[in-house]
């Protein structure tokens, strides 16, 4: 099976790279083992929230010089300042080009509301999600917070308490719909995805409840459990008298699943091939190039491509495998940076920076994977599997996935 580029991994980084290449006429295949981390998304993409030394970042573009100084192996450092600035702008234009409506820009972080009601800095947020331009107040004096009776993945009282600290009062309203009753037979079924499948079809009933109980409020706060497979949220907004703002729930994430499916469908419309439920098990490397890839589902029938992009993610998706004494990359056995002393892998203080989060595949400045210290000419590495950054503490996980994918696509196209 011959392609221009073979992409291993169907998460955010793999999909963006595949779409970008397909937009320029490349024939691409994405080989995906299954669920990606997008299914746990908050609805926002972080670019850079904190420097490695703990300094908070308000303007990611203005902080890049200091980041490069502190973390020379960071993926952004490998991009370099000029490329980082260019790719950040390119990313914003990319999402506009594929009709994903996002709020924000790389010159100034804004603040999204977390599931616990806290304000967290971020780069881009899905339109319709609760956010503020500053971290000291919210844009409403009073809100009505709604939750479905028995839905335990959303916390109205916690949210109301945090809102009050920021000067916003809240009325909490619990509601019910008869069509939800069948989900209550098993508590594990009362999850955001299952609720969304019901609410998406009950817009008029839901709108009546929201209108009746939101008098005297500036806005409605609603859990992000609507709009899974349709434009239900848009229809609800049209039917309700007050503006509606969503707050992400605990996973699974409706907005994450929707984004994953949207990018997947967009890739297919461009002519891409998406092979779900398959994994690459080995590769043939000849003359410092990957010449053939073999997957579990296709046996002895190889995939071939001029270029290969490895975007398999980190430990969560088994892009990296950790044993008792080492961490390795399972497809190509690429060089991986990790501390030889296992005690350096973790910190007993759970909320502190964990060493393992910075471990990852070594690459050159163009994100070509290293094998025994030598860059493989046509093998690029993208996203969470890369070395040198802490996606959680630095608030840069999505940014690394997006910017590395676009930079790699540009390198491939420049050939």
Give a verbal description of the structure:
The protein has ten helices and 22 strands. The chain is an alpha/beta fold. The protein has two domains: about 1-95 and about 255-415, FAD/NAD(P)-binding domain, CATH 3.50.50.60; about 130-245, Rossmann fold. The strands form seven sheets. Strands 13-2-1-16-22-21 form a six-stranded mixed beta sheet, covered by helices on one side. A four-stranded parallel beta sheet has the order 10-9-11-12, sandwiched between helices. A hairpin with a 2-residue loop joins strand 14 and strand 15 (about 290-295).
Report a brief summary of the structure:
The protein has about 425 residues and is an alpha/beta fold.
Overall 3D shape: globular
CATH class of the largest domain: Alpha Beta
By CATH, the superfamily of the largest domain comes out as FAD/NAD(P)-binding domain
- Number-wise, the strands total 22
Note the gap between the termini: 22 Å
Helix segment count?
10
Write a concise keyword list for the protein shown above:
globular; six-stranded mixed sheet; 415 residues; FAD/NAD(P)-binding domain; four-stranded parallel sheet; 10 helices; alpha/beta; 2 domains; Rossmann fold
Secondary-structure topology with pairs:
Blueprint: E1 2-8, H1 12-23, E2 28-32, E3 44-45, H2 64-70, H3 75-79, H4 81-97, E4 102-103, E5 110-113, E6 119-122, E7 124-126, E8 131-132, E9 142-148, H5 156-165, E10 169-175, H6 192-199, H7 203-213, E11 219-223, H8 232-239, E12 244-247, H9 254-269, E13 273-276, E14 280-286, E15 289-295, E16 304-310, E17 321-322, E18 327-328, E19 336-337, E20 360-361, E21 368-371, E22 374-381, H10 397-414
Parallel strand pairs: 1-2, 1-16, 2-13, 9-10, 9-11, 11-12, 16-22
Antiparallel strand pairs: 3-7, 4-7, 5-6, 5-8, 14-15, 17-18, 19-20, 21-22
């Amino acid at each position: 099976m011959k392609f221009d580029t073979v992409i291993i991994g169907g998460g955010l980084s793999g999909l963006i790279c595949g779409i970008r290449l397909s937009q320029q006429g490349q024939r691409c295949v994405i080989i995906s083992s299954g669920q990606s981390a997008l299914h746990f998304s908050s609805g926002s993409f972080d670019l850079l929230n904190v420097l490695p030394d703990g300094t908070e970042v308000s303007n990611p573009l203005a902080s890049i010089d200091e980041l490069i100084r502190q973390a020379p192996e960071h993926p952004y450092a490998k991009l370099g300042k000029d490329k980082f600035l260019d790719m950040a702008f390119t990313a914003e234009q990319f999402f506009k080009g594929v009709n994903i409506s996002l709020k924000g820009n790389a010159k100034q972080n804004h603040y999204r509301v977390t599931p616990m009601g806290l304000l967290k800095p971020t780069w881009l947020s899905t339109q319709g999600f609760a956010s503020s331009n500053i971290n000291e107040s919210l844009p409403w004096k009073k809100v009505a917070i709604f939750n479905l009776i028995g839905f335990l993945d959303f916390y109205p009282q916690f949210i109301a308490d945090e809102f009050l600290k920021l000067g916003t009062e809240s009325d909490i309203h619990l509601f019910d719909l008869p069509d939800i009753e069948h989900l209550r037979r098993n508590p594990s079924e009362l999850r955001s995805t299952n609720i969304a499948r019901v609410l998406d079809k009950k817009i008029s009933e839901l709108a009546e409840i929201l209108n009746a109980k939101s008098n005297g409020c500036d806005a409605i706060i609603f859990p992000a459990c609507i709009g899974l497979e349709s434009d239900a949220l848009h229809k609800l907004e049209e039917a309700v008298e007050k503006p509606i703002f969503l707050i992400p729930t605990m996973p699974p994430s409706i907005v994450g699943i929707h984004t994953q499916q949207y990018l997947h469908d967009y890739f297919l419309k461009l002519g891409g091939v998406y092979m779900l439920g398959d994994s690459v098990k080995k590769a043939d490397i000849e003359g410092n190039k990957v010449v053939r890839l073999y997957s579990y589902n296709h046996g002895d029938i190889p995939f071939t491509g001029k270029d290969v992009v490895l975007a398999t993610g980190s430990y969560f998706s088994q892009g990296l495998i950790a044993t008792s004494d080492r961490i390795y990359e399972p497809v190509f056995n690429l060089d991986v940076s990790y501390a030889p002393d296992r005690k350096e892998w973790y910190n007993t203080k759970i909320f502190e920076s964990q060493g393992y989060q910075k471990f990852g595949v070594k690459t050159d400045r163009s994100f070509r994977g290293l094998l025994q210290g030598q860059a493989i000419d046509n093998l690029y590495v993208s996203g969470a599997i890369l070395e040198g950054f802490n996606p959680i503490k630095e608030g840069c996980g999505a940014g690394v996935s997006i910017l590395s994918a676009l930079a790699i696509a540009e390198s491939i196209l420049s050939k």
